[in-house]
């Protein structure tokens, strides 16, 4: 989830546990709710030390405990009179909330690293969801603005209402994920991808072996079933070597491996491609169907010369509407 949502939910849970009466420990919990994402500062070291990657060791029980211990030691120096044990408790809770929220999405986190590589990902929400981001920004404004401008009783009511709203949202997402999981098995798919709308999901099945790859997916709407035609795409190994390239399928076959080599991240997500004709041949858009943000998807644009087979590759964010893929909007 986005950083604002992590901090706000950790804040509200700390608020609920203290009944809104201990600002120091509420602040400690909300700070800890955001600290695991400080691993973004360690990215230059991640190539040498993989545990320092984003969603690595800082997103584990060990990592958040280290943060909590540090807060318990430094906290009383910053806020005289603060109880170190309570600081430890609320910072541990805030950090664990961060892990659980990330695992609730289609990102994966290693809660038991470095002792185990087992990952947690429930695929119940998007990692970056415009709905929750808007909720969090609004919540942040209300909590900060009202703190010193309205009576304390009104501020407490706002806090409780926001806490109930967020918990209700998470319950809605969890129940929807359970329902769509049953439909996934019924329809013969192997995975689900959440969209921004908790009632719309993608059902996915992917196969990859000996250089060949294929995927199929369809949009599922809770209460209505599969509402769009299934989309499918596949690549054989080895790709065709004949020139000139005359069909869209040949363009897909030839561009697949260069595109995946250009973006290892794209190669590790569920992906799809669309093909359009161009002046010299074909333009192929390979993009992720798993990580879409505000109607755009990251991917690789491949301009393929039909006569020579030469390719020009460029990273970009594509508007899904431009790619004529209404399934993914």
Give descriptors for this structure:
9 helices, four-stranded antiparallel sheet, 329 residues, alpha+beta, single chain, elongated
Break the fold down into its secondary structure elements and pairings.
Layout: H1 3-17, H2 23-34, H3 43-46, H4 61-78, H5 84-104, H6 130-147, H7 152-187, E1 191-194, E2 200-209, E3 212-221, E4 225-226, E5 231-235, H8 248-262, H9 264-267, E6 271-277, E7 281-288, E8 296-305, E9 311-319
Antiparallel strand pairs: 1-2, 2-3, 3-4, 3-5, 6-7, 7-8, 8-9
Element string (H = helix, E = strand): HHHHHHHEEEEEHHEEEE
Total strand segments: 9
The figure for the number of domains is 2
The radius of gyration is 23 Å
Low-confidence stretches: 325-329
Q: What would you call the structural class?
A: alpha+beta
What amount of the residues lies in strands? 15-25%
Q: Which shape, going by the Cα principal axes?
A: elongated
**Helical residues, percent:** 40-55%
Q: Count up the helices.
A: 9
Distance between the termini: 19 Å
Largest sheet: 5 strands, antiparallel
Mean model confidence by pLDDT? 88
Describe this structure in words.
- By secondary structure, this protein is an alpha+beta fold.
- The chain has two domains: 3-179, no CATH class; 238-329.
- Helices cover 43% and strands 20% of the residues.
- The chain is built from nine helices and nine strands.
- It has helices at residues 3-17, 23-34, 43-46, 61-78, 84-104, 130-147, 152-187, 248-262, 264-267; strands spanning 191-194, 200-209, 212-221, 225-226, 231-235, 271-277, 281-288, 296-305, 311-319.
- The strands form two sheets. Strands 1, 2, 3, 4 and 5 form a five-stranded antiparallel beta sheet that branches.
- The radius of gyration is 23 Å and the shape is elongated.
- The two termini are 19 Å apart.
- Mean pLDDT is 88; it is low at 325-329.
């Amino acid at each position: 989830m986005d950083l604002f949502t992590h901090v706000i939910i950790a804040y509200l849970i700390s608020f609920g546990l203290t009944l809104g009466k201990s600002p120091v420990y509420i602040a400690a919990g909300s700070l800890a709710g955001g600290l695991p994402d400080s691993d973004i500062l360690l990215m230059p070291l991640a190539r040498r030390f993989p545990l320092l990657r984003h969603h690595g060791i800082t997103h584990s029980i060990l990592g958040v405990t280290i943060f909590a211990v540090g807060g318990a030691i430094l906290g009383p120096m910053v806020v005289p009179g603060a109880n170190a044990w309570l600081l430890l408790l609320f910072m541990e809770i805030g950090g664990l909330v961060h892990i659980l929220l990330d695992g609730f999405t289609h990102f994966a986190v290693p809660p038991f690293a470095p002792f185990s590589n087992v990952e947690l990902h429930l695929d119940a929400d998007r990692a970056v969801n415009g709905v929750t981001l808007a909720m969090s920004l609004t919540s942040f404004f209300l909590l900060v603005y009202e703190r010193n401008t309205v009576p304390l009783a009104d501020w407490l009511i706002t806090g409780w209402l926001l806490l109930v709203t967020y918990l209700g949202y998470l319950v809605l997402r969890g129940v929807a994920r359970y329902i769509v999981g049953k439909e996934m098995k019924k329809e013969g798919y192997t995975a689900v991808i959440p969209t921004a709308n908790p009632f719309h999901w993608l059902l996915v099945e992917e196969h990859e072996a000996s250089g060949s790859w294929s995927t199929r997916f369809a949009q599922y709407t809770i209460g209505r079933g599969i509402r769009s035609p299934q989309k499918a795409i596949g690549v054989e190994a080895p790709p065709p070597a004949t020139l000139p390239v005359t069909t869209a399928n040949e363009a897909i076959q030839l561009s697949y491996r260069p595109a995946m080599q250009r973006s290892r991240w794209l190669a590790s997500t569920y992906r799809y491609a669309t093909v359009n004709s161009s002046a010299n041949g074909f333009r192929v858009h390979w993009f992720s169907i798993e990580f879409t943000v505000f109607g755009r998807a990251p991917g690789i644009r491949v301009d393929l010369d039909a006569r020579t087979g030469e390719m020009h590759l460029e990273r970009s964010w594509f508007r899904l509407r431009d790619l004529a893929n209404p399934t993914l909007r």
